[in-house]
Amino acid sequence: MLRVVPSRPYAVRATAPVRVADVGGWTDTWFGGPGRVCHLAVGPGVEVRARRTNRTGGAPSVVLESTALDPPVTVTQTADGRWAGGSSVRHLMLEEAVCEVLEGVPADEVGRVEVVIGSQVPPGASLGTSAAVVVSLLAALDTLLAGGRRTPEELAVLAHRVETVRARREAGVQDQWAAAVGGASLLEVDPYPTVRRTPIPLSDAVVAELGQRLVTVVFAPHDSSAVHREVIGAHCPRRWLDTRRGVTRASRDRRAGPDGVGRAPRCRHRPMGRVAAGMHQLAAGAS
């Protein structure tokens, strides 16, 4: 008797942590580097459940549902073969994350997919929740539709590209890496957005102590991209204010230097924080 085993799963559950206790924040941005950032990834964070449905007829589509999405967000294939959502500015990043995966999948293999997004952390809490949502959404759809070939590091890079290039938002790189890789990490960012990650091993005793001592209080939501733009406007030369041009020029100039001698143009903003000291203290506590 021939038994057909599906080559792809029917349903997928993906989770991603959020990020706390970062030291060196802002140096992971295009205008604040080269940078070094130390952080901890913690849970509970974000959960994404994606499943294929048995519905037939209609265009291939992916429907996103969440308590924060009313009505649900639908990404479908247009008459010219492109994937597109409702072009809602509020949910553009989610739509672009879905499109990023679907563009590499034949339409007849998509069918109809339903996605439910849940988060234990309120949006706009300054803990990297948006990045965790995008990372877990990419991971779920990549596994469900594209074979799950992407590594956590590749998902981090892809999630950052979705946010900054496709959705045209301002963002550093640390939130995506915390969500995709987890744990305690030291990230060296040079040139932006290239990341070299060093994991910081923590003993079970240190993890338990951190769990008892780390407390985050959220007073009100904020828009991280808007905060980035405020900092850029206040501290960066006007020639760097165009995000797309700034990212391209900053990356190029960090390689060659503005005058060809290997130095990088830097904004006046210099965040306080001793990243290396924080890393060594964490490591010392783990030994």
CATH fold topology? Ribosomal Protein S5, domain 2
Q: Helix fraction?
A: 25-40%
Radius of gyration equals 20 Å
What order do the SSEs take from the amino end to the carboxyl end, as H and E? EEEEEHEHHHEEHHHH
Largest sheet: 8 strands, mixed
InterPro entries: GHMP_kinase_N_dom, HddA/FKP, Ribosomal_Su5_D2-typ_SF
Region (Disordered): 247-268
Keywords: Kinase, Transferase
Pfam family, one: GHMP_kinases_N
Write up this protein.
It is a single chain. By secondary structure, this protein is an alpha+beta fold. The chain has one domain (11-286): Ribosomal Protein S5, domain 2. Helices cover 34% and strands 23% of the residues. Strands 1, 2, 3, 4, 5, 6, 7 and 8 form an eight-stranded mixed β-sheet that branches. Helix 1 (92-102) runs parallel beside helix 2 (129-145), helix 1 (92-102) crosses helix 3 and helix 2 packs across helix 4 (174-181). The longest helix has 17 residues, at 129-145. It starts with 10 loop residues before the first strand and ends with a helix. The model is unreliable at 1-6 and 243-276 (pLDDT under 50). Residues 247-257 have a biased composition (Basic and acidic residues). Keywords: Kinase, Transferase. This is D-glycero-alpha-D-manno-heptose-7-phosphate kinase. GO terms for molecular function: ATP binding; kinase activity. Residues 106-183 form the GHMP kinase N-terminal domain.
